[in-house]
Amino acid sequence: MIVAGFGYRAAATAESLRDALTRASDGRRVDRLAAPRDKAAAPCLTALACELGLSVLPIDADTLLRPDTPTQAPRVLQARGTGSVAEASALAGAGPGARLLCQRQISCDRLATCALAEGETP
């Protein structure tokens, strides 16, 4: 299973997320979307999920606490306890033993990031 994890600002649109996903997926088929619980029901993400026919997995804040992500954004590390919300969301969504397929990719408008992880979680 391939999970696309997202991090995004409040001003992000479905197009912001779609652009970040396109950059990250590089043609790979994604099975599920993941984002922090406090952002998982945002209109931009629900619109993208609907468009793609995929479900959104909300990731709890304590599950995002991954200081070992390849990307280390100091501001994000301080605010969320991880260097990359997108990478942490993808890894958490893909389950135990998941591995990153793609580090976070940033949308053109710089409002969204997306990373892909592969795992065995159905």
Automatic annotation (TrEMBL):
Q: Which residues form the CobE/GbiG C-terminal domain?
A: 2-117
Q: Which domain of life is it from?
A: Bacteria
Signal peptide extent: none
What biological processes does GO assign it?
A: cobalamin biosynthetic process
Picking any one GO molecular function of the record gives: hydrolase activity
Keywords of the record: Hydrolase
Query: What is the name of this protein?
Result: Cobalt-precorrin 5A hydrolase
Source species of the chain: Salinihabitans flavidus
